[in-house]
Request: fold
Amino acid sequence: MTDPHPATRGRRAVLRGLAAASLAQAVPNAALAQSAWPAGPVRFIVPFPAGSGTDLNARLVGERLSAALGVPVVVDNRPGADGSIAAEAAARSKPDGQTVFVTSNSTHASNLALRRKLPYDPVKDFAPVTLLGTAPLLVLVHPSLPIRTIPEFNMTNVSYKGNPQAIADLAAGQVQAMFCDAGTALPQVQGARVRALAVTSLARSPSVPDLPTVAESGLPGYEMVAWFAVFLPAGTPEPIVTALNQKIVDIVRSPEFRAKTGPGADWAPGTPQQLAAFVDAEIAKWKRVVAQAKIEVE
Reply:
């Protein structure tokens, strides 16, 4: 049945035309938001120094991402304050996909439990992209220290900006013990410059199968693993988040990438939603641990 009023038919025709024009414009714009990225070199901000586990993983991913995108990927190391310096810089960066934050437990889980005030919010200030993976830590001592098991072990904390400097001092005998990611620690262990007492994962690591876990060495249920993940500043357009996620997931799942990575890592890339849920769980875990252990918050 047709509308008998020509004016009404005219208005409806105009509205249909406007709706069609809007839809036609929206589709190219959505495609443009993704196709225009990246607009130039991509910067990876890393909260630890060169040679650290997080840095090495960032460089492995960045090298392959550069080839996939056809633009340089530059690693910007900003160590200090348990990663807070780098996290703040990343959070305040323009949300255009040109600045990426490659980080770990410190900035997005433990800092929130250990510090009363942070210059960034690990949840509100970042858009999750993907988890890269996890890795156990090794409990190390200098060979001169007469300790060979976890029950004999105790320590006083000395802060370092990153593991490369700390393990160099350990090997030189300037400090006597440390917890260190497997990738950084194993060359020193294999060279007999430091001695490993245990691994911090709940199960023994395939990289060091003869090394007992802390849990089986007198602390049942103990588990502490490092994890590595990729974030963008909050407000980054969804097509860019999706595109970066897909590129990095493809890279990390490739046999070529796995063949290049060091020992100890368990690579497990996934969706932004999975990373967001993982971070929420890690934040809750660290708050619980700090409260139960009555650790003094800075």
User: Anything to note?
Assistant: The first helix runs from residue 6 to 35. Residues 137-217 form a domain with the D-Maltodextrin-Binding Protein; domain 2 fold (CATH 3.40.190.10). The two ends are 75 Å apart (CA to CA). Residues 26-34 have pLDDT under 50 and may be disordered.
